[in-house]
Specification:
The protein is mainly beta. The chain has 5 helices and 24 strands.
């Protein structure tokens, strides 16, 4: 079931469960995956549903984990217990989504309230608030339910989808860039191995040659490999331990709370001890692909699950873990997959200038804009920073004939571009401000 996508200029409570870009296609009966998002955040949920339940274990690392119902996965039960895993944005507020998944299973009569038939859902969250977006919309029970009901076999949306909708990497290096969620699959004989990750680390994702997996235009000139950044350590850092950024108006972003949540699933029959070791081994291996990994500002969690269907055969449990570690690295490498985003229909420059108006993205996040001819003056007037720019910050921009404005100077590196949209039934008057066009754009409403 796919629900309508919200208009970029009108607030909507409707979840979006569609895929807007590439998907991983894979063959794993007994595993259903769904995503649901609130486009106005943007933020979202990714759910992994096991209709016949799965045996599961968990490994938690880093200094700021946020989890739901994981203790039962640590108790060593050697039987399939787990119905679903819910990964969510929204930090600790987003833990509501896991409860919504369980509630939906009860409402849809997949599970009852009877002893032994309770919906057993585990979950974890990433931090996606702060100066990466300008509102406090977060996943809730309704969004978790929508993700479960949209779940299907054999397909996993890549990039800025689901819980990875507003994922960011790189704060530690002072180079915060968007990432997302990734997935990979491998089969050896009858044994299936699938790995999924919502990549939101303080560190940067690197490939097997040490190259940084990000748009080269967002990196310092001449920097391509992680060793180039690590060779200069120690460097000047703020009180959070983050590099004082040059890429974002001369100062580091102020909220480096991050997290990488991952899931490895196999159909191999494993005793609980081997499944727990699989979780440890794969999670530990991720330090190769994320540097640094599991810091005090990360809350990394890995779920290992088995549908317990086939024998390992000639594979040893350690070899299974080694192969699964490589599959997880493959998943990391496609987490930054670009998401297709339709550009909004903007008011032309002639309908915008002159303009003197304030726009609100959230009760704490406001911008005041003055437009005269091609000149655009932007001031941060809300009580909270806008993309890291504190109250009173001023940005200059130039208005293009098509209505898009492009910022100039260092301050414009955080707020890149924008434009104006009309309200319903009012095609000639700017009522909405859109900034940072693309998959992660933000929309504000005119106040006056």
């Amino acid at each position: 079931m796919t629900t309508p996508t919200a208009s970029p200029f009108e607030p909507s409570a409707l979840p979006d469960t569609a895929c807007h870009g590439r998907e991983l296609e894979f063959d794993f009966p007994g595993l259903r995956i769904g995503v649901a998002e609130y486009p106005r955040g943007p933020t979202g949920v990714t759910v992994f549903h096991f209709p016949r339940r799965a045996k599961a274990a968990v490994d938690v690392r880093g200094g700021l984990p946020g989890t739901y119902n994981v203790d039962v996965l640590r108790l060593g039960y050697d039987v399939p217990l787990l119905d679903a895993i819910g990964i969510s944005g929204g930090s600790w507020y987003g833990l509501q989504a896991a409860g919504g998944i369980a509630q939906a299973m009860k409402e849809d009569e997949l599970r009852s309230g009877g002893l032994g038939d309770l919906a057993n859902v585990a979950g974890a969250i990433i931090y996606d608030f702060g100066d990466r977006r300008l509102n406090e919309i977060h996943p809730d029970a309704a969004l978790g339910a929508a993700a479960l009901r949209a779940a299907r076999e054999g397909r996993f949306p890549l990039g800025a989808h689901g819980a990875g909708r507003m994922a960011v990497q790189g704060h530690y290096h002072g180079l915060p860039v968007h990432s997302g969620q990734g997935g990979a699959f491998r089969q050896i004989g009858a044994v299936k191995i699938a790995a999924f990750v919502v990549a939101n680390p303080v560190g940067l994702i690197v490939d097997r040659e040490g190259r940084i997996v990000a748009d080269p235009r967002l990196l310092p000139p001449g920097v391509t490999h992680i060793r180039q950044l690590l060779a200069d350590l120690p460097i000047e850092r703020d009180e959070f331990g983050m590099a004082r950024a040059t890429a974002w108006n001369g100062h580091a972003r102020r909220n480096p709370a991050n997290t990488t949540i991952s899931v490895v699933v196999t159909n191999a029959r494993l005793p609980f001890a081997d499944l727990q070791r699989l979780a440890y081994q794969v999670h530990g291996s991720m330090g190769r692909g994320i540097q640094p990994f599991a810091t005090a500002w990360d809350g990394d969690v890995l779920f290992a699950a088995s549908t317990d269907e086939v024998e390992l055969g000639s594979l040893h449990a350690i070899e299974l873990g080694t192969i699964a570690s490589e599959v997880m690295w493959d998943a990391l490498l496609c987490a930054h997959t670009p998401r297709h985003a339709e550009p909004p229909r903007l008011l032309a420059a002639a309908a915008v200038s002159p303009l003197d108006a304030s726009f609100e993205f959230d009760r704490h996040s406001r911008l005041h804009l003055e437009v005269a001819g091609e000149q655009v003056e932007i001031e941060v007037t809300g009580s909270r920073p806008v993309f890291g720019l504190p109250q009173g910050s001023r940005i200059e921009a130039r208005l293009q004939p098509d209505g898009r404005f492009v910022t100039t100077g260092n301050a414009g590196r955080a707020l890149r571009d924008g434009g104006f949209g009309a309200g319903s039934g009012d095609e000639g008057r700017p009522q909405h401000l859109v900034v940072n066009f693309g998959a992660w754009q933000q929309v504000g409403r005119r106040l006056d």
